[in-house]
């Protein structure tokens, strides 16, 4: 008996491993202790596709509009503020990028098994230029949509504080900020807040979990590669449209214009209609060139914005998977110790139970990812194709207008 109780599952010597840093290791080994308030509980339920986060009973959205340049310190410091209007309060608040950045940092630290969407990148120079501000607003809108769509992140205190604290109440903002920074349900204690299904049919087969997580790991690797490739292709295509195609169409237009000018030298009354029709064709090609240059903003840019957001999610998953894998390793180790008579069964069962909690949360997160991925890519591909159809309809219209000019020649 004495020998049994002295055996412990070995600790990970790499202090920088995500499994250790996230508090996953301490939790699995039963070292987490804290009082979980009802409001802190995160529920995983069994849905038709397996474990899922319990839906937010009060879903809401939040728009991000009107980026405006503001100043402080008597105009010495400038910054851009965004107007946020959450649908569940209807009250607008203004937030700067640094506020988003603070929130992202808090949430990424608090939720080791949830993919907190990455913010659009910082930019030191040219951050007041119109194109950059517009692009960043679109990136933040995607970010906000993913935050509001996540059953756990949407209801988190820090996020709600960010959405609802009046912009003018500096004191209340700082209080909420301090409260979030002092949150005790982080690290190993965070895992205590997760409640999972119990009773018959609710336990997970760890081998099956392992194969599901491995399958998802392969999927994310492939998705990451293809997203990177599509981003590169779309970028290249957009560049060609803005510079190359516009130039080529306008070159054709210019050549038609030269032909009509040459024809005008004949000074024959009966050929005036033809000259005008050819000049109109030249203008049509010129206009089509402009349509090509404007088009990426309508169709390719939104696709690239979506890909940027998903590349952030895909960058998060190796760490999430690492936490789950680390927990599984501890279970295997403890089982071996029991077989060798070095550990009591009860202790090993505790490790397995806590690993179960991490596995439920990981599978719930994977399910959520697939759900929003299907939603987002469906709507974005529909938008892309609708915009493409509109574009070619505009091109066709220009060509048809030009064609009709020859009817009366």
UniProtKB/TrEMBL annotation:
It is found in: Cytoplasmic vesicle membrane. Keywords: Cytoplasmic vesicle, Membrane, Protein transport, SH3 domain, Transport. CDD domains: PX_SNX18. GO terms for biological process: cleavage furrow formation; endocytosis; endosomal transport; plasma membrane tubulation; protein transport. One of its GO terms (cellular component) is plasma membrane. Its main location: membrane. It comes from the Eukaryota. One of its GO terms (molecular function) is phosphatidylinositol binding. Pfam families: BAR_3_WASP_bdg (PF10456), PX (PF00787). Residues 60-170 form the PX domain. Belongs to the sorting nexin family. This is SNX18 protein. The gene is Snx18.
């Amino acid at each position: 008996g004495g020998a049994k109780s002295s055996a412990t599952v070995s600790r990970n010597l790499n202090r920088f491993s995500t499994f250790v840093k996230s508090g996953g290791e301490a939790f699995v080994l039963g070292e987490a202790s804290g009082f979980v308030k009802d409001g802190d509980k995160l529920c995983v339920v069994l849905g038709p596709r397996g474990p899922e986060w319990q839906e937010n009973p009060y879903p809401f959205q939040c728009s991000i509009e009107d980026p405006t340049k503001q100043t402080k310190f008597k105009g010495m410091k400038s910054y851009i503020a965004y107007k946020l209007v959450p649908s569940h309060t209807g009250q607008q608040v203004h937030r700067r990028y640094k506020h988003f950045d603070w929130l992202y940092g808090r949430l990424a630290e608090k939720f080791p098994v949830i993919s907190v969407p990455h913010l659009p990148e910082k930019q030191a120079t040219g951050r007041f230029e119109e194109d950059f501000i517009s692009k960043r607003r679109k990136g933040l809108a995607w970010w906000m949509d993913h935050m509001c769509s996540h059953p756990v992140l949407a209801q988190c205190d820090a996020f709600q504080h960010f959405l609802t604290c009046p912009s003018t109440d500096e004191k209340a903002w700082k209080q909420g900020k301090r409260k979030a920074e002092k949150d005790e349900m982080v690290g190993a204690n965070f895992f205590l807040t997760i409640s999972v299904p119990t009773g018959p049919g609710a336990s997970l087969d760890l081998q099956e979990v392992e194969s599901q997580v491995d399958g998802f790991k392969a999927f994310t690797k492939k998705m990451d590669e293809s997203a990177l490739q599509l981003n590169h292709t779309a970028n290249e295509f957009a560049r060609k449209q803005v510079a190359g195609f516009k130039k080529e169409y306008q070159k054709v237009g210019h050549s038609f214009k030269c032909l009509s000018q040459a024809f005008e030298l004949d000074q024959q009354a009966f050929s005036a209609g033809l000259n005008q029709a050819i000049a109109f064709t030249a203008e049509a090609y010129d206009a089509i060139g402009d349509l090509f240059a404007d088009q990426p903003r309508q169709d390719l840019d939104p696709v690239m914005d979506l890909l940027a957001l998903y590349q952030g999610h895909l960058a998060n998953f190796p760490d999430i998977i690492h936490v789950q894998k680390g927990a599984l390793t501890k279970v295997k180790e403890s089982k071996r110790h029991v077989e060798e008579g070095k550990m009591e069964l009860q202790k090993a069962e505790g490790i397995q139970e806590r690993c179960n909690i991490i596995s439920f949360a990981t599978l719930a997160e994977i399910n959520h990812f697939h759900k929003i991925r299907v939603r987002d890519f469906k709507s974005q591909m529909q938008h892309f194709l609708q915009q493409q159809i509109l574009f070619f309809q505009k091109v066709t219209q220009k060509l048809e207008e030009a064609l009709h000019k020859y009817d009366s020649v």
